[in-house]
Amino acid sequence: MSEYNMRLWVNQDTPRSASEGTWVGLKGTKRGEACVIDFFTEMMLEGRAFQIRAGSLTTPLVGDVVITTTAAEYALNAPQGVCALCCTLDISINLGTGTLHEYALKSLDGTATGTAFVPLNLMMDSDAPASRCTALVDGTGGTVVGTEAATTTRRHWSASNPVAVGAGHSFTSYHFEPRTPPAIANVAYFFVQIAATTTGPSYFSSMDYIELPWVNVS
Fold this sequence. Notes:
This protein has 218 residues and is mainly β. Helix content is 3%, strand content 44%.
């Protein structure tokens, strides 16, 4: 009977660096536990994590009046050869005097159209790579998406409230952080809808996503 003993390189006080294509010792603590970095942090450190922003605290956007099946506030297009994973989504409502507030994140095959927004790399480095995906930000339902259908459109998250923000709306900030992040690839897109009846809500929002070459996924 043969035995295989895994050995760890105890070097946690000074991080090591090595060139690509070389063998290095597996990093461990002085007690022998293996040090493993989580997937999301690793993707950020590799420059593969990006953010889309729609509005800001000082300059919010205004949502649509009633969610319309072909209208969105912003979207992310993944081209051929690219896979994108939606990691987090935040929506903060500044003011919403309308009723029947509805917010949703969905995905669909094809390409959304609208006003271009250059995604921000979450690695704060001037040499960080640019996103191969393209983002669109419009507000007031200005991003054009395909017609929603139960047989084609994926619904990943939604929230709704029939009461206006100014009349007892219990939540004004929403956060989506899925255990299994939805993915789009090879000409598909995520889109975000923010709307209310009578008066569109004033808001700012952001989406963080990870981008990988499709060849590294399939």
